TrEMBL record:
Belongs to the ATP-dependent AMP-binding enzyme family. Residues 1-339 form the AMP-dependent synthetase/ligase domain. The keyword rRNA-binding does not apply. Residues 1-20 form the signal peptide. One of its GO terms (biological process) is fatty acid metabolic process. Keywords: Ligase, Signal. This is Medium-chain acyl-CoA ligase ACSF2, mitochondrial. Its EC number is 6.2.1.2. InterPro entries: AMP-bd_C, AMP-bd_C_sf, AMP-binding_CS, AMP-dep_synth/lig_dom. It catalyses: octanoate + ATP + CoA = octanoyl-CoA + AMP + diphosphate; a medium-chain fatty acid + ATP + CoA = a medium-chain fatty acyl-CoA + AMP + diphosphate. Residues 391-466 form the AMP-binding enzyme C-terminal domain.
Length: 487
């Protein structure tokens, strides 16, 4: 389900009833939806009837062609999805084999219920991992981790019980932890007002809400901030007045160049970075609201209270401060596990409860840290270990480049070569050759991309706004192979 008021009601109702709320991406097609429903064993599915180009009764019917062969307002009977008992559509229409929302709510209108005694350590929320490297896994989080994490997030941000009325502009999707935790739980714990500019992220709608509804807090991935800045720049200067005091970015590394652009667009705003993952409820590192600009631009903040972090080498041994290695996390934030996947859970959380993030990270003596890149994204070119984020940050310093993704492609001689996909400013005539020339003499020769592709439109993204590098890599490999066939 996309962002809407009903989503908030469902999250809170499920938690109060001791149910596990399962977040499903509204962009899923039938195979993806079947995988998610089956992996978790969903008993009740609530959805819109249609959204954008999606027709959900039709998508579900592709999973089981007999599922709707029952009268309206009746339980589900499915051989393909035998665990599914109820489907509810937020629609005024009567749909065979399913309830509309009004009819479903009427079922409990005259009944008294005993509210269960919920324990803090019980599972309450399933988030599917973004699926940037394979089929999504079902991450099970508990009440204790999510509620305490948002409490510490808001306190460190500086708007927790500060006596002021705050208005949140929620741009990320609620079906991922960043949007759900900051948007729903953050609003509740700070007694704030929550705005959804649109059901699905639209930069202009977000800017309109930020200005017209005088939002004081905005948050989103770096990609979202890039689009918001671009939308602001299209407005006449006299229409850019806003009340934003706090901003937060996470979900992917945020370059110093982007932070500077943001501060120029929102000069009265304090932007902080956060770092975490679905499996850690979600935030483990965060800047303080009174950190210096240098700390905000060069780190993802300090480790959260009551959370442990360590960085290890390939042998699992801790490395010295300031040395790259894989980040491991331990503490109340850690997930219960991957639902119905004991093998993957054991691969991720070891016997001493350390959770392997898969992120290359540098931890400093003062507790601050910095993301070097995903371990799986590291490029090994002729024996040189190259982290894409270094090249991405450099290329983003070019005034005509707005977004960059760097990754490795196979090469017979070097093992891997550096490849960059670039989005340039609208109307720019920047070429691939210009970009390579810009690199020479400014970064190490082995970091200069051998291949540069200027992309039109947007990068492919997951539902949470993370760029799917593996798709860019697949496209690049095909382009290179096609080029080599002709030359």
């Amino acid at each position: 389900m996309p962002n809407c008021a009903l989503y908030v009601s469902l999250v809170l109702a499920a938690s109060r009833l001791g149910l596990i709320f399962v977040n499903i991406n509204p962009a899923y097609q039938s195979d993806e939806l079947k995988h998610s429903l089956t992996l978790v064993g969903v008993k009740c599915l609530v959805a819109l009837e249609t959204f954008k180009t999606q027709n959900y009764p039709e998508i579900i019917e592709r999973i089981d062609q007999d599922i709707w062969k029952r009268p309206p307002n009746s339980p589900v009977k499915s051989k393909v999805l035998p665990f599914l008992e109820t489907v509810v559509f937020n629609s005024e229409n009567r749909i065979n084999g399913a309830y509309n929302l009004e009819s479903f709510l009427d079922l409990g209108s005259n009944r008294n219920y005993d509210v269960p005694n919920i324990q803090p350590d019980e599972g309450c929320n399933i988030q599917f991992t973004s699926g940037t490297t394979g089929k999504p896994k079902a991450t099970l989080l508990n009440h204790f981790g999510m509620v305490n994490n948002i409490n510490f997030i808001m306190k460190r941000l500086g708007i927790h019980e500060n006596g002021n009325l705050n208005t949140f502009c929620c741009m990320p999707p609620l079906f991922h932890t960043f949007g759900l935790s900051i948007g729903i739980l953050g609003t509740l714990i700070t007694k704030s007002t929550l705005y959804f500019p649109s059901a699905h992220f639209e930069p202009k709608a977000a800017v309109d809400v930020i200005i017209q509804d005088k939002c004081t807090f905005i948050f989103g991935t770096p990609t979202v901030l890039v689009d918001v800045i671009a939308a602001f720049e299209k407005l006449p200067p006299e229409q850019r007045n806003n009340k934003v005091k706090y901003a937060m970015t996470g979900g992917a590394p945020c370059s110093p160049v982007l932070i500077k652009k943001f501060k120029k667009t929102f000069p009265g705003t304090k932007l902080v970075s956060v770092f975490g993952m679905t499996e850690t409820s979600p935030i483990t590192f965060q800047n303080y609201h009174d950190d210096t600009d240098e700390q905000i631009m060069s780190t993802v903040g300090q480790i959260h209270d009551h959370v442990e972090a360590k960085v290890v080498d390939l042998n699992g041994e801790m490395v010295p401060f300031g040395t790259p290695g894989e980040l491991l996390i331990r503490g109340y934030v850690n997930m219960i596990g991957y639902y119905n996947d004991e093998e993957k859970t054991k691969e991720t959380i070891d016997s001493t409860k350390w959770l392997k993030t898969g992120d290359q990270f540098m931890l400093y003596e003062n507790g601050y840290g910095n993301v070097v890149g995903r371990t799986k994204d590291m490029i090994i070119r002729g024996g040189e270990n190259i982290f894409p984020v270094d090249i991405e940050y450099f290329l983003e310093s070019h005034p005509l480049i707005t977004q960059v993704q760097v990754y490795g492609v196979p090469d017979e001689r070097m093992g891997e070569e550096v490849c960059a996909s670039v989005i340039v400013k609208e109307g720019s005539t920047l070429t691939e050759t210009d970009i390579k020339s810009y690199c020479k003499g400014k970064i190490s020769h082995f970091k200069v991309p051998k291949y540069v592709f200027i992309e039109k439109g947007e990068f492919p993204k997951t539902g949470s706004g993370k760029v799917q590098k593996f798709l860019l890599k697949e496209i690049a490999i095909k382009r290179i192979a096609k080029y080599n066939e002709h030359y």
